[in-house]
UniProtKB/TrEMBL annotation:
This is APC4 protein. The gene is Anapc4. The keyword Cell cycle applies. It comes from Pampusana beccarii. InterPro entries: APC4 (IPR024789), APC4_C (IPR056358). Coiled coil: none annotated.
Amino acid sequence: MTQKDITFVADFLTEHFNEAPELYNRKGKYFNVERVGQYLKDEDDDLVSPPNTEGNQWFNFLKNSTHLKESPLLFPYYPEKSLHFVKRQMEGVIDQCLQKPADVIGKSVHQAVCMSLYKTSQSEDSTPQLYKLPFLWNDKTSNIHYVLFTILENSISKIYILRRHTDTSRSVSNGILAVDFGNFLNNSINESSDSRCYSCLDAHFYDDETVTVVLKESVEQEGKERVLAQLPLS
């Protein structure tokens, strides 16, 4: 150890482990513990060396503010307690705040409709992921909720659009439909249907009336592997 290291340790011991007669009547060791470690102990006991808040601008501000001093919006301060104690207090308050909304929302949710999209085998083998690209969109103008998705096993060239009215008592026409991209980008009917077939890589709503899709050509050719298309819902 260098002389600098020894001096540092000596200064640390001198500052933090001086005898403290006022602590003699307390259980355990009667000297000041290291001031950082006391905050991290998972105990409900008061701190041995609580912080000195004199001159703290925030506390002075609160003390001089008649509106904020008793405000229920401010989390109470416990200068004599460790961070573990404060953490448990805050978790309790947060749990209490979230419990009522959770009960209300939970009781208000119910199944509006049930649709069978696909069937899987009953074997014990892990079922492959068949449902892909779920994207949600809410059209506030017409009060219709949309879900875009694809089913891999059925047809990778199709994208499904499910729509429901936000008022569950009302229905909409074509509640679910499929858009088959297939060979819709062929320039003429003379082109082979197998020569340019497309599958959907991704799909999002661009706005209330337009869907943006990223298509992949099944027979990849240089410079023609991906297509970005804007499709009107109509």
